[in-house]
C-alpha cells in the first residue's frame, strides 16, 4: 500500500524536484498545507496571511523506502535551525515542517526529529504534527524545474547530482563487505556523477596513508600523519575543505591542476581507517553541501 507524508522545506519547486528523484517515491506534488482558508491561490498564500506552508505531498512505496530514510533525505535539503527562511526565501510560507496523515507515522517522525536535534545540539525550527489540510498548487507549479530547467531553485543544483550518486552507490554496495571493492566503486560513482578532477582514497597503514582506489591522474603514493590536507583530516579526525590549495600550509600538490580540495575521514569503530580525497581544477568548489552528501556516501561503506 502506498503511503504519503507532507514535507515543507522552503520553496516547493526545488523540494518537489528533489523528492521526485528519490527511489521508491511514486509522486511528488507541490501544494499548500495547514492554512486557514479553503482552496487558496498562490497569490493568497504569497501574502503570508493564510497560514499555509509551501509543502510537497510525497507518495512512496514503503517496501522500497522507509519513512525514516525519506526524512533523513529531507534533512539533507533543509536548514532545520532557520526560522521561516530557506535559502533566500523568507516568510511563514517557507517554514519547515513534517506533517503526517497517518497517526502511526508520528513515532518515526519524532525519532528522526530527536536524532537530528541531538546532532544539531539546539532546538530545531522544524514544525511536526498532523496534516490539517493540503491543497494542490496551480498546474504551473507542478514539475516547475522540469518545465523551466533554468528556473529559480533555492537548493544548490549539485544537490540533485549528489542524490543520484548516493542512490547509485547504495544500490551498488548492497551486500558487499570488501573495503577495497567498496572504495573502488565509491571513487567511480563520484567520478561518473560529479566529474571532479581527482577522487580517491588514502588508506591508513600504521603511521602513514597509502594510496588506495582512485579515479584521476597519477598521485603521490604515501602521505605522513598530519601532512598535507589528507594527513590533517586524519590527524584532526574531521572534514577539511580547502577553497584555495595555495593558501593551505603544507598542501601536497600531486597535480598542478588541482585548485581546491575536500578531504573526509572514513572511520571504523571510532578510528580513522582511510580518507576520501577529492580535488577540483576550479577554485572554491567545495562547501557544506559537498561535505554533507559525501559524509552520507561514506556512511554506506
Ligand atoms: N593534496 C593532497 C595530496 C593528495 S592529492 O590531492 C591526490 C594533500 O595535500 O594531502
Features:
6-stranded antiparallel β-sheet; alpha+beta; 301 residues; 9 helices; binds methionine sulfoxide; 14 strands; 6-stranded mixed β-sheet
Question: In words, what does this structure look like?
Answer:
The protein has 301 residues and is of the alpha+beta class. 32% of the residues lie in helices and 27% in strands. α3 runs parallel beside α4. The structure holds methionine sulfoxide. The site of methionine sulfoxide has 14 residues, from α8 and β14.
Neighbour order of strands in the largest sheet: 7-6-1-3-2-8
Secondary structure tally: strands: 14
Structural class: alpha+beta
Q: List the helices and strands in order.
A: EHEHEHEEEHEEHHHEEEHEEEH
Name the ligand types.
methionine sulfoxide
Which of globular, elongated, flat, extended, rod-shaped describes the shape?
elongated
Please estimate the helix content.
25-40%
Average pLDDT figure: 97
Contiguous helical run count: 9
- What's the story with the biggest beta sheet? 6 strands, mixed
* Radius of gyration, CA atoms, in whole angstroms: 21 Å
* Parts with pLDDT < 50 across at least 5 consecutive residues: none
Amino acid at each position: 500500500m502506498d503511503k504519503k507524508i507532507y514535507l515543507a522545506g522552503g520553496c516547493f519547486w526545488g523540494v518537489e524536484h528533489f523528492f521526485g528523484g528519490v527511489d521508491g517515491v511514486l509522486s511528488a506534488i507541490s501544494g499548500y498545507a495547514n492554512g486557514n482558508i479553503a482552496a487558496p491561490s498562490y497569490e493568497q498564500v504569497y501574502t503570508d496571511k493564510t497560514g499555509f506552508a509551501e509543502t510537497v505531498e510525497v507518495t512512496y512505496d514503503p517496501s522500497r523506502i522507509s519513512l525514516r530514510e525519506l526524512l533523513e533525505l529531507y534533512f539533507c535539503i533543509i536548514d532545520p535551525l532557520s526560522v521561516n527562511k530557506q535559502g533566500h526565501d523568507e516568510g511563514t510560507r517557507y517554514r519547515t515542517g513534517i506533517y503526517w496523515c497517518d497517526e502511526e507515522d508520528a513515532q518515526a517522525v519524532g525519532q528522526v526529529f530527536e536524532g537530528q536535534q541531538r546532532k544539531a545540539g539546539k532546538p530545531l525550527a522544524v514544525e511536526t504534527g498532523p496534516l490539517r489540510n493540503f491543497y494542490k498548487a496551480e498546474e504551473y507549479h507542478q514539475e516547475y524545474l522540469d518545465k523551466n530547467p533554468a528556473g529559480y531553485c533555492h537548493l544548490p543544483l549539485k544537490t540533485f547530482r549528489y542524490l543520484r550518486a548516493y542512490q547509485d552507490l547504495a544500490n551498488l554496495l548492497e551486500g558487499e563487505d570488501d573495503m577495497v571493492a567498496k572504495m573502488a566503486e565509491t571513487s567511480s560513482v563520484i567520478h561518473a556523477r560529479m566529474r571532479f578532477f581527482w577522487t580517491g582514497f588514502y588508506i591508513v597503514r600504521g603511521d602513514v596513508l597509502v594510496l588506495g582506489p582512485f579515479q584521476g591522474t597519477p598521485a603521490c603514493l604515501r602521505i605522513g600523519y598530519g601532512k598535507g590536507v589528507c594527513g590533517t583530516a586524519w590527524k584532526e579526525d574531521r572534514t577539511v575543505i580547502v577553497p584555495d590549495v595555495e593558501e593551505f600550509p603544507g598542501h601536497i600538490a600531486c597535480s598542478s591542476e588541482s585548485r581546491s580540495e575536500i578531504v573526509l575521514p572514513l572511520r571504523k569503530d571510532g578510528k580513522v581507517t582511510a580518507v576520501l580525497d577529492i580535488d577540483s581544477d576550479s577554485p572554491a568548489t567545495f562547501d557544506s553541501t559537498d561535505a554533507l552528501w559525501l559524509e552520507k556516501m561514506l556512511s554506506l561503506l
